[in-house]
């Protein structure tokens, strides 16, 4: 039942569209917080997005690509291992369409490769229980990258760096980039076309994600920031594109299905919102993706890994969140989607001298805190003073007071329950008290329209 409820909750969050918008007070606060935290940790450049279901999306930027070239919200950043969630979703979508079954063993497609057992299942690749050695764990791999930083590799060449497995398939858990490199190669063989085309045709284009590319198989006219890295010059933070001629081609081509996507912060936030709300894969696939394996404790909270997705239980504000950060040379990013509110946050940076923990626990957490402390819509800003609507108390128990002052036109009030059913629908011309004592405790969506136009929208908790 919990699995069905989870998918239903986010479907409810996503299907009820309103004409509300994020208030300037809310977005100004988000920008102030982004700048403050980035300044505190000396973050060179960042692009951020925060999506509030049914209301809107904020896009904020901080810092520069290089001197005189500020970060802009249309820039494509490498999202590193956040790519894995996209690949997992694509594999599940292809399973829905009958192209593959994730219980299939990989030996059909991956053969005669040392240290790679054909008896591993696709599911074991996606949840990191294959035991396969991560090709990025060896210094030989990194020497190959740095020796020719402009070289474009074939992804199959990365398999030469796969050493002895960590454990027998299915017996433990260990994060491994090899798993998703293989998943990408399998999709390429199944579909008989470049992985980038399958991503576009089956995952991105159908849901309108047009600012995402699979690099370097694809390129784009969209701007890409210079990257600042400590990986070359003895730990010094440098613009490695200007100093060493680094072009992303080498590491991105080797990362392949494990980390080769470039994306705007807005597209990243939209992807996570659309994924969890059931717009990319169906409920059955989403439930399959969310079969979490306990993998440890973080700051006292249990952490689980599903199919390309992390779950942090009771983490920020006591809410369980889902996420998958990423790291690539010069790029570190983190994101989350709040399972209670549906609020989605993405922060992408062009600097690798910070770490993912700082980005997640300080930058993303600070933006999430704003989302919990402030209402994303300022009622007076949306309505002016002419409607004079006031809803109280919230949370409510028994009676919900709806005050309407100076109203010259009837207002249509609608209240929706957790599965999107319209349980209250009435016309109002005066203030009223709504009896809600018979309703099941939980979150509800209240919408008010006048002459067909949205004038108020809010979530209401009934205790």
Explained architecture:
The protein is an alpha+beta fold. It has two domains: 2-373, Beta-lactamase, CATH 3.40.710.10; 379-462, Immunoglobulin-like (Sandwich). Helices cover 30% and strands 26% of the residues. The chain is built from 13 helices and 22 strands. The chain has helices at residues 2-15, 24-40, 83-96, 122-126, 139-147, 177-191, 195-204, 240-244, 249-255, 265-276, 283-289, 356-373, 379-383, and strands at residues 45-52, 56-66, 69-70, 77-78, 212-214, 228-229, 238-239, 261-263, 293-298, 301-305, 310-316, 319-323, 326-328, 331-338, 344-349, 389-392, 399-404, 411-416, 422-428, 432-435, 442-450, 453-462. The strands form five sheets. Strands 1, 2, 3, 9, 10, 11, 12, 13, 14 and 15 form a ten-stranded antiparallel beta sheet that branches. It has a four-stranded antiparallel beta sheet with strand order 19-18-21-22. A hairpin with a 2-residue loop joins β2 and β3. α2 runs antiparallel to α12, α3 (83-96) packs parallel to α6 (177-191) and α3 crosses α7. The radius of gyration is 24 Å and the shape is globular. The relative contact order is 0.16. Mean pLDDT is 89; it is low at 1-19 and 379-386.
């Amino acid at each position: 039942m919990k699995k069905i409820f989870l998918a239903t909750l986010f479907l409810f969050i996503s299907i009820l569209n309103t004409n509300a918008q994020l208030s300037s007070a809310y977005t100004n606060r988000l920008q102030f917080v982004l700048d403050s935290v980035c300044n505190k940790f000396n973050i060179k450049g960042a692009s951020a997005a925060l999506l509030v279901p049914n209301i809107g999306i904020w896009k904020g930027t901080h810092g520069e690509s290089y001197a005189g070239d500020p970060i802009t919200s249309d820039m494509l950043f490498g999202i590193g291992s956040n790519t894995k969630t996209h690949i997992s979703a694509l594999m599940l979508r292809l399973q829905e369409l009958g192209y593959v079954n994730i219980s299939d063993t990989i030996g059909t497609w991956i053969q005669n490769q040392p240290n790679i057992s054909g008896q591993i299942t696709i599911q074991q690749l996606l949840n990191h229980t294959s035991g396969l050695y991560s090709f990025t764990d060896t210094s030989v791999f990194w020497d190959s990258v740095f020796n020719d930083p402009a070289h474009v590799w074939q992804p199959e060449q990365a398999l030469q760096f796969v050493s002895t497995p960590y454990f027998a398939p299915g017996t433990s858990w260990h994060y491994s980039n090899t798993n998703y490199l293989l998943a990408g190669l399998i999709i390429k063989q199944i579909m008989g076309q470049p992985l980038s085309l399958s991503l576009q045709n089956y995952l991105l284009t159908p849901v309108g994600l047009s600012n995402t590319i699979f690099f370097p198989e694809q390129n784009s006219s969209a701007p890409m920031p210079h990257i600042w890295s400590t990986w070359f010059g003895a730990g010094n933070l440098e613009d490695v594109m200007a100093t060493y001629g680094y072009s992303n081609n080498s590491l991105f081509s080797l990362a392949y299905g494990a980390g080769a996507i470039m994306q705007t912060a807005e597209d990243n936030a939209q992807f996570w919102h659309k994924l969890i709300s059931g717009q990319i894969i169906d409920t059955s696939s989403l439930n399959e993706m969310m079969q979490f394996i306990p993998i440890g404790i973080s700051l006292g909270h249990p952490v689980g890994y599903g199919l390309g997705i992390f779950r942090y239980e009771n983490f920020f504000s006591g809410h369980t969140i889902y996420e998958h950060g990423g790291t690539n040379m010069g790029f570190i990013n983190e994101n989350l989607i709040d399972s209670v509110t549906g609020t989605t946050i993405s922060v992408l940076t062009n600097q690798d001298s910070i770490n993912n923990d700082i980005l997640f626990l300080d930058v993303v957490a600070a933006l999430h805190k704003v989302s919990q402390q402030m209402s994303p819509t300022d009622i007076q800003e949306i309505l002016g003073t002419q409607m004079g609507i006031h809803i109280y108390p919230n949370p409510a128990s028994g009676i919900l007071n709806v005050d309407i002052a100076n109203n010259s036109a009837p207002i249509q009030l609608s209240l929706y329950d957790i599965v999107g059913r319209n349980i209250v629908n009435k016309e109002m011309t005066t203030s009223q008290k709504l009896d809600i004592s018979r309703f099941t405790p939980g979150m509800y969506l209240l919408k008010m329209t006048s002459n067909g136009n949205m004038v108020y929208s809010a979530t209401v908790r009934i205790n």
